[in-house]
Amino acid sequence: MLIWAATRALSTALFLIVGYLQGANYWTPAHPGYFDFLNIWDVEWYHRIFDHGYPSVLPTNPDGSAQQNEWAFMPAFPFLVRAINAVTGIEWKYLAPILATVFGFIAAALIYRLLSRVVAKQTALWSLALMGLWCASPTLQSGYAESMALALLAWALLLIHDRKYLFALIPTALMSVTRPGVLALSVALAMIFADRFWYSRKTPSDFPLRERMELFVAGITTAALGLVWSWVAALATGRSDAYISTELAWRVGYTGTQNFVPFQSWLISANWFWPGITGVIVLVILVGLVVWSIFTKPVISLGLTMRSWIAAYWVYLFFFFYPQSSLFRILIPAFPMLAALGVSTAKSGRLAKAGIVLSFSVLQLCWLLTCWMYTAPDFSPP
């Protein structure tokens, strides 16, 4: 908790510095205070849900395509803030960042417990420090749902690691209405099932029938939970593609289309940043590095659960996500990658570790200056 508190203190200090540099913008006047500065960007959408919920009629353009609207954001976090607000009377501006910060501490405790299952405690502490220093970690104390989703994910992975697959459905169900990504968890469960089945062929007792059934049921149920919010949006609006079309509304300015084609977004993005063959080469190198990382010793040392989650989450991102500046925030759930970095640098000297901490701190400041601070027109959202 002290290590996590230190990382949050750093992020708070950097928020204050960057907030002083922030000019007048769409959300705040110049030099906004700490809590005002934490309530910009997509926090506005969560605040709208807190205020009035979701539209029953999907907002559309003249051609029938969806406009940006609340259905892209899930209800668990803003509704929880609303419930606490009803009891305490604390307004959104203060309550949402405070609650997000609390969830960040819960996530840190659960991640530490998960890491302690597979690596030495000192390595787990060092890895946790790297997670708290990650460039986009300031999001974990803003009015986003990231910290709540991270806590639920860590809880689910901890239960899966302990082979309590059916109990893992509790945090998974909550996560399905908090942040996207539950479909990736179903892929991870499928990978775990395949691995356990393959290596127990000669000794079936290593993967008993009861565990097989529980893991299978958990995987199927998780896949269904990953679609729940799409079904809710469809039922509420009467439009079957309400959720996916709303999500696509955020990328139409880059892709020029609201038609979803799996994996295509990465090619479009690569061509956006590096036109022509250069973009394709960069993308191939990136995919190669991701695949290579899954088979490195530090990642393997994290165990089957976290390794499967990393692989599944990357498959999920390659399938659905349009990569741009938000990628650094979207990678927060892939925290075992930072744990692997922690494993590989755990035996480094104090000077080397100090250099890593300093480098991560500078990168966090750069992220805040580039992605969080707003200067119109801004094409680098957090």
- Tally of individual domains: 1
Strand content: under 5%
What's the assembly state of these chains?
single chain
Main structural class: mainly alpha
**SSE string, helices as H and strands as E:** HHHHHHHHHHHHHHHHHHHH
Describe the protein's topology.
Blueprint: H1 2-21, H2 34-37, H3 43-52, H4 76-88, H5 92-116, H6 121-133, H7 146-161, H8 169-175, H9 182-199, H10 209-225, H11 228-237, H12 242-249, H13 252-255, H14 264-273, H15 277-294, H16 297-300, H17 304-320, H18 327-330, H19 336-345, H20 350-372
Helix pairs in contact: 1-6, 1-20, 3-4, 4-5, 5-6, 5-7, 6-19, 7-8, 9-10, 9-17, 14-15
Report what the structure shows.
This protein is mostly helical and 382 residues long. The protein has one domain (2-372). Helix content is 66%, strand content 0%. It has 20 helices and no strands. Helix 1 runs parallel beside helix 6 (121-133), helix 5 (92-116) runs antiparallel to helix 6 (121-133) and helix 7 (146-161) runs antiparallel to helix 8. The chain is globular and about 65 Å long. The mean pLDDT is 95.
